[in-house]
Protein backbone atom coordinates (compact mmCIF):
# COMPACT_ATOMS: atom_id res chain seq x y z
CA UNK A 1 0.00 0.00 0.00
CA UNK A 2 2.95 2.31 0.49
CA UNK A 3 3.61 2.19 -3.26
CA UNK A 4 0.20 3.73 -3.94
CA UNK A 5 0.53 6.31 -1.17
CA UNK A 6 -2.44 4.80 0.67
CA UNK A 7 -2.11 5.04 4.46
CA UNK A 8 -4.08 2.90 6.89
CA UNK A 9 -4.23 3.21 10.69
CA UNK A 10 -5.10 -0.20 12.12
CA UNK A 11 -6.68 -0.34 15.57
CA UNK A 12 -5.04 -2.33 18.36
CA UNK A 13 -6.58 -5.75 19.02
CA UNK A 14 -4.40 -7.20 21.82
CA UNK A 15 -4.23 -5.15 25.04
CA UNK A 16 -0.89 -3.91 26.34
CA UNK A 17 0.48 -6.11 29.12
CA UNK A 18 -0.29 -4.57 32.49
CA UNK A 19 -3.23 -2.56 31.13
CA UNK A 20 -6.56 -2.62 32.93
CA UNK A 21 -8.15 -4.42 29.95
CA UNK A 22 -9.79 -7.81 30.32
CA UNK A 23 -10.81 -9.59 27.15
CA UNK A 24 -11.53 -12.94 25.56
CA UNK A 25 -10.76 -13.64 21.92
CA UNK A 26 -12.74 -16.29 20.06
CA UNK A 27 -11.00 -17.70 16.97
CA UNK A 28 -12.90 -20.04 14.61
CA UNK A 29 -11.07 -23.27 13.80
CA UNK A 30 -11.14 -24.04 10.06
CA UNK A 31 -12.80 -27.21 8.91
CA UNK A 32 -14.74 -27.95 12.09
CA UNK A 33 -17.55 -26.44 14.15
CA UNK A 34 -15.21 -25.41 16.97
CA UNK A 35 -13.67 -22.23 18.38
CA UNK A 36 -10.42 -21.54 20.25
CA UNK A 37 -10.74 -19.15 23.21
CA UNK A 38 -7.86 -16.93 24.39
CA UNK A 39 -8.23 -14.88 27.59
CA UNK A 40 -6.31 -11.74 28.72
CA UNK A 41 -6.75 -10.56 32.30
CA UNK A 42 -5.26 -7.10 32.93
CA UNK A 43 -3.49 -7.44 29.59
CA UNK A 44 -1.75 -10.75 30.41
CA UNK A 45 -2.57 -13.95 28.50
CA UNK A 46 -3.93 -16.66 30.80
CA UNK A 47 -3.10 -20.35 30.25
CA UNK A 48 -4.26 -22.56 28.67
CA UNK A 49 -3.45 -20.34 25.73
CA UNK A 50 -6.11 -21.73 23.42
CA UNK A 51 -8.95 -23.64 25.00
CA UNK A 52 -11.02 -25.36 22.29
CA UNK A 53 -14.82 -25.29 22.60
CA UNK A 54 -17.58 -26.63 20.37
CA UNK A 55 -19.57 -24.15 18.30
CA UNK A 56 -19.19 -21.75 15.39
CA UNK A 57 -19.10 -17.96 15.46
CA UNK A 58 -21.77 -15.90 13.64
CA UNK A 59 -21.06 -13.86 10.50
CA UNK A 60 -20.37 -10.16 11.03
CA UNK A 61 -21.73 -6.95 9.55
CA UNK A 62 -19.66 -7.27 6.37
CA UNK A 63 -20.82 -10.88 6.01
CA UNK A 64 -17.33 -12.25 6.58
CA UNK A 65 -17.41 -15.74 8.01
CA UNK A 66 -14.74 -17.29 10.19
CA UNK A 67 -13.55 -14.02 11.70
CA UNK A 68 -12.10 -13.89 15.21
CA UNK A 69 -14.24 -11.99 17.73
CA UNK A 70 -12.93 -10.08 20.75
CA UNK A 71 -15.13 -9.46 23.79
CA UNK A 72 -13.52 -6.71 25.87
CA UNK A 73 -14.44 -5.01 29.13
CA UNK A 74 -14.17 -1.23 28.70
CA UNK A 75 -15.14 1.08 31.58
CA UNK A 76 -17.44 -1.53 33.09
CA UNK A 77 -19.24 -2.36 29.83
CA UNK A 78 -18.65 -5.05 27.23
CA UNK A 79 -17.40 -4.23 23.75
CA UNK A 80 -17.66 -6.85 20.98
CA UNK A 81 -15.18 -6.50 18.12
CA UNK A 82 -15.29 -8.49 14.89
CA UNK A 83 -11.54 -8.55 14.19
CA UNK A 84 -11.78 -8.98 10.42
CA UNK A 85 -14.20 -6.07 10.10
CA UNK A 86 -12.19 -3.91 12.50
CA UNK A 87 -9.05 -4.49 10.42
CA UNK A 88 -10.73 -4.42 7.01
CA UNK A 89 -12.93 -1.35 7.47
CA UNK A 90 -9.94 1.08 7.66
CA UNK A 91 -8.37 -0.65 4.63
CA UNK A 92 -11.61 -0.37 2.65
CA UNK A 93 -12.02 3.30 3.59
CA UNK A 94 -8.38 4.08 2.70
CA UNK A 95 -8.82 2.35 -0.67
CA UNK A 96 -11.94 4.44 -1.38
CA UNK A 97 -10.08 7.66 -0.51
CA UNK A 98 -7.15 6.66 -2.73
CA UNK A 99 -9.53 5.89 -5.62
CA UNK A 100 -11.30 9.25 -5.20
CA UNK A 101 -7.95 11.08 -5.19
CA UNK A 102 -6.81 9.24 -8.33
CA UNK A 103 -10.06 10.11 -10.14
CA UNK A 104 -9.78 13.74 -9.05
CA UNK A 105 -6.23 13.88 -10.45
CA UNK A 106 -7.37 12.35 -13.74
CA UNK A 107 -10.17 14.93 -14.07
CA UNK A 108 -7.71 17.83 -13.72
Compile the SSE list and pairings.
Blueprint: E1 22-29, E2 34-41, E3 44-54, E4 69-74, E5 77-82, H1 83-107
Antiparallel strand pairs: 1-2, 1-4, 2-3, 4-5
Notes on the structure:
The chain is α+β, with helices and mostly antiparallel strands and 108 residues long. It has one domain (22-107). It has 1 helix and 5 strands. It has one helix at residues 83-107; strands spanning 22-29, 34-41, 44-54, 69-74, 77-82. Strands 3-2-1-4-5 form a 5-stranded antiparallel beta sheet. The radius of gyration is 18 Å and the shape is elongated.
Provide the helix percentage. 10-25%
Strands ordered across the widest β-sheet? 3-2-1-4-5
Tell me the Rg in angstroms. 18 Å
Q: Characterize the largest beta sheet: strand count, sense, and whether it forms a barrel.
A: 5 strands, antiparallel
Poorly predicted ranges = none
Number of extended strands? 5
The helix tally amounts to 1
H/E element string? EEEEEH
In terms of DSSP E residues, the strand content is: 35-45%
What general form does the structure show? elongated
Intertermini distance:
24 Å
Q: What's the pLDDT, averaged over the residues?
A: 76
Secondary structure category: alpha+beta
Whole-number tally of structural domains = 1
